[in-house]
Amino acid sequence: MRSQANDGQHQHAAIGIPQRRKLTIAPLVNPVMVKEFRSRRFGRMHWMLRLAAASAMASLGLTYVASLGSMDWGPQTIGGLMVLFQGALIVLLTPALAAGLISSEVESGGWQLLQMTPLSATQILLGKLASVVWPILLILVSTLPGYVVMVYIEPAMWLQIRQVLICLTFTAVFSITLSLACSSLLSRTATATAASYGALAAICGGTMLVWLLRDAPFGHSAVVAALTINPLAAGLAVIRAPGFAEYQLIPGSWWFAAFASTLFLALVVLRTHQLTRPQ
What is the rounded CA–CA span in Å between residue 27 and residue 21? Predict the structure, then answer.
């Protein structure tokens, strides 16, 4: 019996299936998340810290320009630029981080190896999701000093900035779940990444095109309907950025983002359940 157990352990080691976590991984840390950070090109901590520092410096730079008064920019314009800056970072980085979480494992055959580990499908999915949530959360937190300076300059903007942060959070959740849904449905990473970028470009950029053509040929109601599905536009409307102050997009935009994100997440869970079934 002992020889058979040793043979089984040697077979598991031969095909690279981990049977216990390394000492460098804390007991409560998901090893799949650690694996994603270590294997991702920009997953190392020093890259994340550089990204956070660059975001914080950019947000503080915008508010510094506004406080000097060297340009005729009001707090609404500065706030709109900060919302666009954060939204662009989220939309550009999220598909690159999330679109290959499942499709890359299916494409390379690594999903079968993950199934052979002691981890459940829920733990695998949560670990992969956490590897995307932490960098995006770091981007959101790193720009908070700029908003703090804006509140110090204009205390009456506290309620608007709080609503803007909610809009940006919905933008991040919507982008992550959409990219993860594309990753679960498509078996090739390149196709999933292209589909994620295309969908986000249509939602965030396409609705802005409708806004640019407001009054001719699109009316006010058509522009509101188009911008409601864009959580980034809701942040611009809340901060009363030039051209967006006349639109009331919340809470309709929040309800849409919450419903769509829930739908995408349910689709990911269903697809993951299908992938974990015996072939």
Answer: 8
pLDDT digits (tens, 9 = 90+) for 167-194: 999 999 999 999 999 998 988 889 999 9
Q: How many CB atoms lie within 10 A of CB 3?
A: 7
152 Cβ neighbours under 8 A, 6+ residues apart: none
The separation between the first and the last C-alpha atoms of the chain, rounded to the nearest angstrom, is 30
Q: Is the pLDDT of residue 47 over 70?
A: no
Residue labelled with tokens 């609705």: 207
CA distance 212 to 209: 5
- Closest C-alpha among 218, 225, 268, 263 to residue 247: 225
Residues 95/138/240/231 CA torsion (nearest 10 deg): 30
Most confident of 23-32, 55-64, 246-255: 246-255
Hunting for tokens 């706030």 — which residue is that?
79
* Stated pTM of the model: 0.80
**Interatomic CA distance for residues 72 and 66, integer angstroms:** 8
d(CA 89, CA 188): 24
